[in-house]
C-alpha cells in the first residue's frame, strides 16, 4: 500500500451520522494511522466533507472548514480534499471557501471535490481552478453518493471534467473516448444511466 485516506467533516452533525464520532474524536483516531503511515513511508490524503453545507445543520461556518483542514495538514496529510458532499455550493461560495482555506493551508496541498446535485459542480470547479487549485476529484459516469446525505448525487463525472479541461487547453493525459467507454460499461454494470453529459454526447455521436 502506497497511499491511504482519512476523512472527517467540517460539520459536527454530519460527522456523527457518517462516522459515529465528533470532529475532534475523528482527528484523534487519525493520529496513530498517520504515525504508522509516516513510519512505513505511506502517503496520507485527508478529506473534509460538507465544506459548503450540511444536510443536518445547514450552513457550515467557514472557520470550521479552515480548522479541520489545518488540523489534517498539520498532522501530516500531504493533500486535503475539500468536499461539497451534498452539492449545494455555487461558484462564488466555492471560490470564497477555497480562498479562506488557502490562506491557512498551501494551495498546492488542496484539492476540490464537488457533487453535482444542483448541477453546479463544473462551474464550481472552474471557479476554483481560477484560484489556483490543480487537483480535482471526480468519478467515472458520475457514480457515487452518500447514504447520510439524502438526495445527494454522485461526484462530478470524470468525463465532463476532462472535456472541460481539454476545451480550456489543459492537458490531462486522459483519453476522453476511452474514459466515456468505461463510464458506459460501469453504468451498464450498475443498471443505471450514465450521469455524464459528455458521455451521453459521445455515445450519441458514435
Protein topology:
Elements (H helix, E strand, L loop, with lengths): L2 E7 L2 H8 L3 H18 L2 E7 L12 H14 L3 E6 L6 H12 L7 E5 L6 H11 L4 E2 L20 H10 L8 H15 L6 H8 L2
Parallel strand pairs: 1-2, 2-3, 3-4, 4-5
Helix pairs in contact: 2-3, 4-5, 6-7, 7-8
CATH names the topology of the largest domain as TIM Barrel
What shape does the CA trace take? Answer: globular
Residue windows where pLDDT falls under 50 for at least 5 positions? none
Distance between the termini: 39 Å
Order the strands across the largest sheet as they lie in space: 1-2-3-4-5
Looking at the overall shape, the CATH architecture of the largest domain is Alpha-Beta Barrel
> Count of DSSP E strands?
5
Number of domains: 2
What is the alpha-carbon Rg in Å? 17 Å
- Biggest beta sheet summary: 5 strands, parallel
The proportion of residues forming helix, as a percent range, comes to 40-55%
Order of helices and strands: EHHEHEHEHEHHH
Number of helices: 8
CATH superfamily membership of the largest domain? Aldolase class I
Beta-strand percent range: 5-15%
- Average per-residue pLDDT, rounded, comes to 95
CATH top level class name of the largest domain:
Alpha Beta
Amino acid at each position: 500500500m502506497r497511499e491511504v485516506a482519512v476523512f472527517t467533516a467540517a460539520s459536527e452533525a454530519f460527522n456523527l451520522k457518517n462516522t459515529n464520532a465528533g470532529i475532534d474524536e475523528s482527528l484523534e483516531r487519525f493520529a496513530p494511522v498517520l504515525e504508522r503511515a509516516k513510519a512505513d513511508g505511506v502517503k496520507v490524503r485527508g478529506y473534509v466533507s460538507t465544506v459548503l453545507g450540511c444536510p443536518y445543520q445547514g450552513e457550515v461556518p467557514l472557520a470550521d472548514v479552515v480548522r479541520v483542514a489545518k488540523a489534517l495538514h498539520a498532522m501530516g496529510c500531504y493533500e486535503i480534499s475539500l468536499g461539497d458532499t451534498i452539492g449545494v455550493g455555487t461558484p462564488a461560495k466555492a471560490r470564497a471557501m477555497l480562498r479562506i482555506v488557502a490562506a491557512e493551508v498551501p494551495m498546492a496541498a488542496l484539492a476540490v471535490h464537488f457533487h453535482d446535485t444542483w448541477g453546479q459542480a463544473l462551474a464550481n470547479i472552474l471557479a476554483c481552478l481560477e484560484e489556483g487549485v490543480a487537483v480535482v476529484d471526480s468519478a467515472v459516469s458520475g457514480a457515487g453518493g452518500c447514504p447520510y446525505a439524502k438526495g445527494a448525487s454522485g461526484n462530478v463525472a470524470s468525463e465532463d471534467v476532462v472535456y472541460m479541461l481539454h476545451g480550456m487547453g489543459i492537458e490531462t493525459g486522459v483519453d476522453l473516448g476511452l474514459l466515456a467507454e468505461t463510464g458506459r460499461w460501469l453504468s451498464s454494470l450498475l443498471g443505471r444511466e450514465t450521469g455524464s453529459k459528455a458521455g451521453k454526447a459521445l455515445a450519441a455521436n458514435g
